[in-house]
Specification:
The chain is α+β, with helices and mostly antiparallel strands and about 300 residues long. Helix content is about 65%, strand content about 10%. It is built from 15 helices and 4 strands. A 4-stranded mixed beta sheet has the order 2-1-3-4, sandwiched between helices. Helix 2 links the parallel strand 1 and strand 2. Helix 13 runs antiparallel to helix 14 and helix 13 runs parallel beside helix 15. The longest helix is centred in the middle third of the chain and has 21 residues. The radius of gyration is 28 Å and the shape is elongated.
Length: about 300
Amino acid sequence: MATLGLSDTEKTALEAFRQDVVEPSRTQLVIVDFWAEWCGPCKQLAPVIEKVCEEYAAKGVKLVKVNVDENGFIASQFRVQSIPTVYAVFQGQPVADLSQARTEGQLKQYLDQLLAQLPIESDEKALAQEVAPLIAMGEEVLAGGEPERALSVFTQIAQMAPDNAEAASGQVRALVALGELDEAEAVLAALPDEVAKHGAIDQARAAVALARDVKPVADLSGVAAKVAADPDDHAARFELAGGLMGNGDRDGAADALLEIVRRDRAWNDGAAKAQLLRIFEAVGLEDPWVAGQRRKLSQILFS
């Protein structure tokens, strides 16, 4: 906006707009709400905009309200013809007209789309970048068979980022590996609703449920002898798989279940395949081990 020929009042309004909107918009998404005291719809919309923008502040969203009666020059520069008019501004330019968003759900949908597309800087992103290598370290330690150390790592991350679903999932799975199932369920029960919906939490729940069903078995020689004597004793092989899983031998458990599927995929209404899928979910669908086992399952099912 050029200042040539502007009155002192307009220059003052323009400078305030630069400080309040243009400068912050270099790194943030600034929501500009054009309103007036006499505008009923503006007053109805204001609490919705204010609440959502406050919730999204950590994501890099800032709200600026512009009274069109006091800032007519600014409103004219944005060609505001009716109010309420709401624009999203990034790097000094309007990037979206949000005027049609009249509910929290609609406004959040617009903001989520914009935040996914634009390189917005935020405290939330900065924290996520900080904890990402720590989460990777925790996962590596847990996979390496050190659940107590992994629990310590994930607990520290959870203190730094209480709403981080991956840290919470790591905590739960480390507790499962330590046999602390009640404590693991307590962590899940205490999660905020938004965190509880995350896919990483689904994996943690699956790990708890599986651990409730499969128990460590000190001596599997008896059931192993049953399977050796009658390879088609699928109930014994299924029991063997559960014992192996309970003892931490997921390779042996998967082999036993795959063998049941190979011999009789329909046995007990497909119980072996269903148990394999439960193990896959508990370990993590993106885990390389799961990918390898799924290939083996596919080869059996489609051969």
